[in-house]
Amino acid sequence: MLQKVLIVISCGLDNPNRATRGLHLATVAQKEGKDVTVFLLDDAVFLAKEGLADNLRAATGDIAPDLIAHLQAFEVPILACTPCAKARRITEDELIEGARFGTAVELIHLSCESAVISL
């Protein structure tokens, strides 16, 4: 059975339900003992910018800051697509704790070795 899980999120503050759902699934996978990585693409990179997701909530009641705090506490890597972030004028020093820029090469490698959930 695969033990690695890659959660790829491509929507951000404009779609709080899908964005928060991705963070929720990453949290569930971590609690289930999986080796989890979150990769943020397109507008999802805003989730990794300090302070932007502070008020993000889903209709289901999931609260993004709580989910992010859980992922940070368990050192789940949060990778923000480098060109996506740069296009949105986000610098690496603006990222939340535990987040860093990631490359397409990393995404491909992670995808090849993980079960992938894309939102």
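(ticket continues) Second input and output from the same batch:
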Amino acid sequence: MVQPSDGLSLSLLGTFRLEADGREVQLPIGAQRVLALLALQGRMSRSRLAGTLWPDSTEDRARACLRTSLWRANQAVPGVVTATTTTADLSVLLAVDVQRLVREARDIWQEGPTPPVQLGRMPGDVRELLPDWEDEWLNADRERLRQLQIHLQEALAEELTAQGRYGLALEVALAALRLDVTRESAHRAVIRVHLAEGNISEARRAYATCQRVLWEELGSRPTPATRQMIE
């Protein structure tokens, strides 16, 4: 059993990992899913939590599974889940990577990137939400977080371009493009770096690639916003 600590962290981007004071804590899969769902949705009623995680079970069976999972989670890390007779939530001491990512995105879009954010957002550093899990309730959050991370890459590329750090800006922009080759805003990020650096031929080559990919993959042409960058 791990004693209460302020060194608690939960990672959901990539594989599930719960840590206390730098040590990984092993949990049964049911307890893992309880923590993951609460981390994504926040405080929930026990009935909704049980119904979401055990949709094919009877109500009584689902509630019993939830009680067992809550007990096992708090046996492993006392207080990691706070539960009443009607609701459940995560401890305020638990740091969750998904929640940190959302806060980072808000900081960037509301105030602009700061040096610590830039250093923490490395090229191509986009990880899928629990990729080995097949639970349907993860699908919407998976796409939401994938889009959020790509937007962060594009925002960072734009900021680095404005700072004149063209090499790193191009690396970040190309990383975003690799995540979704049909994403026109990522193509624009690449073109923007080349234009800012004065590499007109590279910008035209990047635009030609954008044209080809959009036509071959989507049967469409670049939007006016992209065409005007070259014209």
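Agent notes: The first strand starts at residue 8 and ends at 11. The domain at 112-230 is CATH 1.25.40.10 (Serine Threonine Protein Phosphatase 5, Tetratricopeptide repeat). Closing as not reproducible unless the customer responds.
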